[in-house]
Design brief:
FAD/NAD(P)-binding domain, Helicase, Ruva Protein, domain 3, 10-stranded mixed β-sheet, D-Amino Acid Oxidase, Chain A, domain 2, alpha+beta, 39% helix, 8-stranded mixed β-sheet, globular
Length: 554
């Protein structure tokens, strides 16, 4: 699959095209839901535009637990439909992007007075396998205490009774989002980040487009469209209010929090899904040089643009980890990074945050605005299919136009030129052989391939042309140039947070690369010193906000 230029260096041309053309569908929201809808709709032949008020994936879609998982805990809520759908979707999304959606064994410790008993867990995991159509080596097995301790010596010997062992998949949610959007470009989608909806355009009391503010220039422009989908995640209700159609069901926002530690501080050998004393469950997931833990599920009604981990969140998670792993004694100063995100769930009276359904719902207003909310990262493709089916039905009713069926289960995402996951492993080894002479590690090769897949070729070609003595700076500049040319990187935060995840998983590397990356932005965008200083200060605030847990964060 050839890389299609997708750059904010062409921003004025993109805006001109958005302004002059009339689209079948405009999607508001550049998260995983919006990106999935763009690919689904465009691949069915619709003329599609997608706009996002910030950067792509800058809301919920870069702040999940970063798992493509089947939702084992939803079995306890007897939500068999959800378990079946998202369980089946795991394997599909893995095939669409085997470099980006990686197999991950999950250990579920069974402890005295824990949430899961041995018999019910065995039955539950068996049902899970059946509903999710799990086959081969991915099927669950039940472990005795000795077997569980052999797999994970950090588990609590005194209260451990055994464990369940089953398969899930790990991903990078922000990269999964950008690759969906980029793949949709192959089918003609026009997409723009940093473009905020100001108001809707109406004809005969029906939505016929949107007025948009270009956040970069401050100028406004209009996009005409036959249909509009509101896929704005936590901001769905704001747009419904703009349309004067926020009636009936509404969003219920909950906050999920994650902490990152050096791997040597929490050296779990594989992912662990474990009990918290208050009855909730939590993940500990190793990822390269770090281990991250989460998540919480608490009601949230503060500023949606400034969601952060506070001192109470951090204390809660650290206490939970120390409780499950007695030989581990994590402290506040061991935290190297963190993130917090919002889940835009559909409100249900009388239910707590953790009891709310993760099913998605679609609302259509009297003016024709279609809004989609709820759902899980794992189920994004089916959510998109349902949303586009709704549009297809309206197109047939309104215009007599037939729209073909969804085929996204067969469309490989950008970077996927692999038939199977074992080919990804071979490619990582090949990349390692090529970059090892310059002093890079196998971890560096895995990072490149897991992020970019076969697009790593373009980055390595660019690396050879960068003039810098420091190999890490050279490679990061090659990544940045790729991001600016093919992934709409507009500022350093896009690069360090959403495109590479360094803020979360390599914060020291981010600190070391800040100056050369800012210099490269200045060169490419011809940015003045005032803007560079402002970006530097913003990066420093981001680092401090994600890693500093002094008392004033309480």
């Amino acid at each position: 699959m050839k890389n299609i230029r997708f750059s904010n260096l062409d921003r004025s041309k993109t805006i001109e095209k958005l302004s002059k053309e009339t689209f079948d569908l405009v999607i508001i929201g550049g998260g995983i839901t919006g990106g999935g809808i763009a690919l689904d709709a465009a691949s069915r032949g619709l003329k599609v535009a997608l706009i996002e008020k910030g950067d792509f994936a800058s809301g919920t879609s870069s702040k999940s637990t970063k798992l493509i998982h089947g939702g084992l805990r939803y079995l306890k809520q007897f939500d068999f439909w959800l378990v079946k759908e998202v369980g089946s979707e795991r394997a599909i999304v893995h095939k669409l992007a085997p470099h980006l959606v990686l197999p991950e064994k999950m250990l579920l410790p069974l402890i005295e007075n824990g949430s899961y008993g041995k018999w019910l867990t065995s039955i539950g995991l068996k049902v899970y396998d059946i509903l999710a159509q799990v086959s081969g080596g991915d099927k669950r097995i039940m472990l005795e205490k000795k077997e569980a301790l052999k797999l994970e010596p950090l588990l609590p010997n005194k209260i451990l009774k055994g464990a369940g062992y089953y398969a899930e998949y790990r991903t990078d949610d922000a990269r999964l989002t950008i690759e969906n959007i980029k793949t949709s470009l192959q089918y003609g989608t026009k997409a723009l980040n940093y473009a905020e909806v100001v108001k809707f355009i109406y004809e005969n009391e029906q939505i016929a487009g949107i007025n948009v503010k270009d956040v970069v220039s401050g100028k406004e422009f209009a996009i005409k469209s036959k249909y509009v989908i509101n896929a704005a995640g936590p901001w769905v209700d704001e747009l419904r209010s703009t349309d004067n159609s926020k009636k009936g069901k509404r969003l219920h926002l909950t906050k999920g929090v994650h902490l990152v530690f050096p791997y040597e501080k929490l050296p779990v050998r594989q992912s662990v899904y474990f009990d918290i004393p208050d009855g909730r469950m939590m993940f500990a997931i190793p990822r390269g040089k770090v281990t991250y833990v989460g998540t919480t599920d608490t009601n949230y009604d503060n500023d949606k643009d400034k969601v952060c981990v506070n001192l109470a969140d951090a204390i809660y998670l650290i206490s939970a980890v120390n409780n499950m792993f007695p030989s581990i004694d994590l402290e506040m100063e061991d935290i190297i990074s963190s993130w917090a995100g919002l889940r835009p769930l559909v409100h249900e009276e009388g239910k707590s945050a953790s009891e709310l359904s993760r099913k998605d719902e679609i609302f259509t207003s009297g003016t024709g605005l279609i809004s989609i909310a709820g759902g899980k990262l794992t189920g994004y493709r089916k959510m998109a299919e349902r949303a586009v089916n709704r549009i297809a039905k309206k197109m047939e009713e309104d215009q007599g136009r037939e729209v073909k069926e969804c085929t996204t289960e067969k469309i490989p995402l950008c970077g996927n030129a692999f038939k199977k996951y074992k080919h990804v492993k071979k490619y990582i080894a090949e990349i390692y052989d090529r970059i090892r002479p310059d002093g890079f590690t196998e971890h560096d090769a895995r990072f490149l391939v897991a992020n970019y897949g076969k697009q790593t070729e373009t980055i390595i070609e660019t690396y050879a042309t960068v003039n810098n003595k420091d190999k890490n700076v050279r490679m990061a500049i090659a990544e940045l140039r790729f991001g600016i040319e093919y992934e709409m990187v507009q500022n350093p935060m896009d690069f360090f947070i959403r495109r590479t995840g360094r803020l979360y998983f390599d914060i020291d590397g981010m600190r070391n690369l800040m100056s050369p990356i800012l210099d490269e932005f200045k060169r490419i965008y011809k940015t003045d010193d005032t803007q560079i200083l402002a970006w530097k200060e913003e990066l420093e605030r981001e680092i401090d906000g994600h890693s500093n847990f002094s008392l004033d964060r309480a």
